[in-house]
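User: Second chain of the day. Same drill as before.
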Amino acid sequence: MYYLPRLKEVRLMRNMKQKDVCALLNMKQSQYSRYESGEDEMKIGTLIEICRALDISADYVLGLSDLRIRIMYKENINDTL
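Assistant: Same format as last time:
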């Protein structure tokens, strides 16, 4: 799974331990460890929560982009017209 090394990379760049991320997510460290190691596959909702907590782009984590930053979009597309 491509996202595994990127999750760990971003966490370490932010000088965070797994327990720090888990505190933000209200998740057990053992569960997060299984996601990061590839033992468990995470649901898309969990990936979104992790990306929000680490303030990174899901596209970056999934390997679809090399940009780490999240781009914020308006809730309603009509607001941009």
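The longest helix spans residues 3-13.

User: Great, on to the next one.
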